[in-house]
Amino acid sequence: MLELSSVTVNYGSEAVISDLDLAIGTRGATITALLGPSGCGKSTLIRAIAGLEPLSSGTITFDGVDLAPIPTHRRDFGVVFQDGQLLPGRSIADNVAYGLRVRRWSKPDIAKRVADLLDLVDLPGLGKRRVAELSGGQQQRVALARALAPRPRLLLLDEPLSALDRQLRDRLALQIAEIIGATGTPTIVVTHDHSEAAMMADRIAVMDGGRIVQDDHPEKLWRAPRSARIAKFIGCTTVVAATISAGVLDSSLGRVRVDLPDGGVRIGLRPEAVIATAIAEGGGGVTGVVRHVASLPEGTRVRLSVADVEVDAVGDPSLRVGDEVSITLDRDRMAIISGADVSSSEPTTSNDRGFDTRGTVGRNA
Ligand code: ADP
Ligand code: MG
User: Fold this and answer.
1) E-assigned strands of 228-270?
2) Mean pLDDT of 74-95
3) 356 in a domain, yes or no?
């Protein structure tokens, strides 16, 4: 296990990481995503684990051994940063061999390992090329090969895809997960993008304000975020209050059957969880008015006014602004917020780049 206990990192008088606990298995290729908005302390945490940032208090242990006295180069951790940090004037093979030369591997062993790694990251035989001749995605694969070459006992990836185009990011996310799987290296990958986290990871630790605020299997995180703030960060644009009674959840946006105990909750809705349909004659249920229509590649997205709440929904391409629609909730796509209420440590507005504060919160939330 990699175990962080009460870890605090201060810059000056300000705590960037405060009293953080996190435990990660170190057997096999488990991938943990560290997901959080820009500025929440993700890079600082990675640097602290790598030994590049001293702890102000707390401990980090690996398989029970305190890492504090162990310098970065003796921790046997591989690190890849956002921009890869390759040596630009050198060949790809030189870059991949870097950690092996530092560890004084023999020349033939280095040559063999470099060739194997270039095969693994799908750049076979390209060892002689210069880094500058490669695309951004290829450079990140070289950085990954370099980090994996010395067979690290833990791999730390800090936003390895964020400098790349969206389309390439999705492809490379899966490729990286496969490469990590093939090497069996336990990995922590930092991202501010929840889809990217889900593409790669078996588990997502959500970080906010220097703390881990939720640590769950992705499916659980989507269905049961622990706060409205987390719900919004993972794509819920509407949050409203609801009550559950005898297996029926009732809200201002409709009712659905749920298998949960009676009580008050809040629900988080991403557009896909709300289906808007043109009102049929005499149709009942919850109704709203179309305020905006956008044709996206994946379908039609509408913004509705439902009583005093603005709601994003999916609908039929024939919908027009001003149409009256009835709405249905998709139980399988909605989030039920498990935390009792927004706590004082959760600001309702934020300038953090990663959090979308444009999402609406129902006034009864
Ligand atoms: P993230 O990677 O989640 O975007 P960082 O760990 O880079 O967040 O930064 C967390 C906070 O610490 C930010 O407010 C940032 O401005 C601040 N910070 C980062 N590095 C330093 C530093 N070396 N000195 C002072 N403040 C820093
Ligand atoms: Mg960062």
Assistant:
1) 238-245, 248-251, 254-257, 263-269
2) 90
3) no
